[in-house]
Amino acid sequence: MYDVISKAGRVLAGALTLVAVVAGVPATAQAAPEHPGRLVSHTAQPPGWGEWSRASIVEYSTEAATGGTTKSAGLLLLPDAPAPEGGYPVVAWDHGTSGLAPRCGLTTSKAARERPLLQSFLDQGWAVVAPDYLGLSAGADTVHPYLHTRSEATATIDVVRAARAAEPSLSPSWSVVGGSQGGHAALATGNLAADYAPELDFRGTVALAPESQFEQILSRLDPKVPNLPVVDRLVGPFAGMLAGLRATRPDLDVNGTLSARGRQVVDAIATSCVHEFDAVVDGASLGALLARPMESAGVGAALRDYMMVPTVGYRQPILIAHGATDMVVPLPMTLALLGQMRSAGTEVEFAQYPGGHEQIAAESHRRVLDFVGGLFAA
């Protein structure tokens, strides 16, 4: 897609950059996306964009879920204070469920919902990078592989690589923090970071109410599952998982596992943002999505492989925080994950708070800042 720039092309590119500077237009760095983490473009946003004072959008290459590379995007936020010696430490923020369509990422929303937490990171003197995740950026060529462990991690690590190429003031030292789907992504990132990007100095992981264990339940469903309100709130996310699995595993007959209603819901979820999920589902039950058991034709096993949180292989500190009254990701899910990780020999700090899913970021805020600060001070 991108040719090697010839000598004449380099001259033309330089001239265009000069024209852009003279005209007052922010220059955009360009590079070919042959390798994961390669910077494609870096576009500064005007002060006040999304209420951020120093924000930019980074486009970069990352692993495609079916092989090769693809293009994605993320935010780069810088503190107002000058960079310290050695550069700004970097916090990668992994956001919660936002949907599956190319209009559902942080580069579209300007991270408005995340502003209090991300601003607190900036106030500590840390830079913030935040991936849209694969498929959530404008112009994406794939459905977002919702809760796909591998691509969440690679999208996060590669945006850190690209941000450092775009902004020389960033330190190689970085940590990852995420909530809900982002907690799932943060754990996936922490597990992969040292091996995938050994040139960086990865320090550790914070996961707030991470989504986990759902694959153990949903991968074993069949059409006879009764219509129960307590579990049918999972219909939209379940459809999103199936849309992602279908996109990443074209060799599987995911559609053959779905009923006609199920195919309709999964197709619609694949082009929806999270606030549209209820309207798309329109009262369908989990069982109504299926024509045959999930375990048939290997679909259930594939879903477990697709989204399971690793329990071993972590090399840096981990903090998991969860609310006791969380009804979106119930506390027993994380307690089960903790048991699995600790049984496997993985050391994890755990903090429990009284609130629910929406309160965990605020309730754990001081602990998170202290934990991340300790990682960077180590």
UniProtKB/TrEMBL annotation:
Keyword Signal: yes
Signal peptide (residue range): 1-31
SUPFAM superfamilies assigned: alpha/beta-Hydrolases
A Pfam cross-reference name: LIP
Keywords recorded for this protein, A-Z: Signal
InterPro entries: AB_hydrolase_fold, Lipase_secreted
UniProt protein name: Lipase family protein
Biological source species: Nocardia halotolerans
